[in-house]
Design brief:
Elements lengths: L17 E2 L2 H4 L4 H16 L1 H24 L6 E4 L2 H11 L7 E5 L4 H10 L6 E5 L8 H11 L4 E7 L11 H11 L2 E6 L17 E5 L11 E5 L20 H6 L7 H4 L1 H10 L2 H23 L13 E5 L8 H12 L1 E2 L1 E5 L2 E7 L6 H14 L4
Parallel strand pairs: 1-10, 3-4, 3-5, 5-6, 6-7
Antiparallel strand pairs: 2-8, 7-8, 9-12, 11-12
Helix pairs in contact: 2-3, 4-5, 6-7, 11-13
The structure holds pyridoxal-5'-phosphate.
Pyridoxal-5'-phosphate binds next to helix 4 and helix 5.
């Protein structure tokens, strides 16, 4: 496979821009978007029949494919709009209250933290955030952090598979084993995992797992998945209750009112595109590129990366010696506009960091241009 800028044409990405932030919103191959549009048209041609028949048949086939890709049985998988929707559904469904406690680390995605606080904190559940200091030296640090906080009243742990701002793969299987022994359910937020790393979700030993296929799996936006441990499906309801209520996980999540499900149908074409664009080989190549680029940026600025290579996949977050974390949105906007790049500036505590993504269309030159832009913008030599 001829990776790099020659593959930009596979996507609708603006070739005049350097795309360094695949992680936030993904990018859809043209072939996949065309397929999604095809499903939209098919639904329009004969809506009554489509929504009564093809809709359910297609979703059944696609969920079987989800299970083949990420492990487990099809009936334990459901499509969701995104990881945010899955998180809200699970927190709303968990029957917890005063006397119970929910844990998460400070690496939790901001929107998911808000959902925990709203649904569980709002019902009197004690909400505890465990501070995960950066850089992380070793995965065992994260295991120890959770182990030290597990008490009988801890009924739920929310843990990222790959953290958002620090871009670290956390040891979720070890953590889930500890939680199981403590009678604590585990919700894994794997928003970044599908298509970025190989997945066998049931083998992680968690109770709930969500992932976004619209980030690294090349699915259209609005294609998230939710896995629920066998036997627990009937306890989890979407935040929108509709005709499927009481019919089990798939029945409830497949129908949350009339909607455009083309992103879910096009999961099949996304899986095909992912394989065509390198599949497992591309995942390994992207991981190696992110490692090389991360090391180069860290060396250029004399700053640390958020964690060791073994905890990273196709992203890397590097601390910058300049700027304030609170200003990251403005820096992001100004650097993107001034240098024609989609760079991802984000807070690292009070400080500032840059998170890079490595996708099939990236090359080392992209990250060299990023370093040059950051040096120029911050007047750092
Ligand atoms: C760890 C994590 N969880 C959840 C999300 C939310 O994803 P979405 O906006 O697709 O729901 C993100 C998005 O980047 C994320 O990084």
């Amino acid at each position: 496979m001829d990776y790099g800028h020659s593959l930009l044409g596979e996507f609708h990405l603006d070739p005049a821009i350097r795309h360094l932030n695949h992680g936030s919103f993904g990018a859809v191959p043209k072939s996949v978007l065309a397929a999604a549009q095809g499903y939209q048209i098919e639904a329009e041609r004969r809506a009554s029949t489509f929504f009564r028949e093809a809709y359910h048949r297609l979703l059944g086939e696609r969920l079987a494919l989800v299970a083949r890709c990420y492990g487990g049985a099809a009936e334990d998988w459901a499509f969701v709009e995104n990881a945010t929707a899955a998180s809200n559904a699970v927190f709303l469904s968990e029957r917890l209250g005063p006397g119970d406690e929910v844990l998460f680390t400070s690496a939790i995605y901001g929107a998911v933290r808000k959902a925990v606080v709203h649904w569980l904190g709002g019902r009197g559940v004690k909400v505890t955030e465990l501070p995960l200091a950066l850089p992380v030296e070793d995965p065992s640090q994260v295991v120890a952090l959770v182990a030290a906080a597990l008490r009988p009243q801890v009924k739920l742990l929310v843990i990222d598979h790959i953290t958002s701002t620090s871009a670290l793969e956390l040891p979720v299987a070890e953590i889930a084993a500890l939680c199981r022994a403590n009678g604590t359910r585990v919700f894994v937020d794997g928003a970044h995992a599908p298509g970025q790393i190989a997945l066998d979700v049931p083998a992680l030993g968690a109770d709930y797992y969500t992932g976004n296929a619209h980030k690294w799996q090349f699915a259209p936006k609005g294609c998230g998945v939710l896995w629920v441990r066998p036997g627990l499906g009937g306890e989890v309801h979407p935040t929108t209750i509709s005709h499927g209520y009481g019919t089990g996980l798939q029945g409830e999540f497949n129908w949350i009112g009339t909607r455009d499900a083309s992103a879910w149908f096009a999961f099949a074409e996304a899986v095909e595109a992912h394989a065509r664009l390198g599949g497992a080989e591309a995942m390994a190549r992207n991981r190696a590129l992110a490692a090389e680029a991360g090391a180069m940026i860290a060396e250029a600025f004399g700053t640390p990366i958020s964690g060791p290579p073994g905890m990273r996949a196709a992203m890397a977050t590097v601390l910058l010696p300049l700027g304030a974390g609170a200003e990251s949105e403005r820096y992001h906007r100004e650097i993107s506009a001034r240098y024609g790049m989609e760079a991802c500036l984000m807070p690292w505590g009070e400080r500032l960091a840059v998170r890079i993504s490595a996708q099939v269309y990236n090359e080392m030159e992209d990250y060299e241009a990023l370093v040059a832009a950051l040096r120029d913008y911050f007047e750092y030599n």
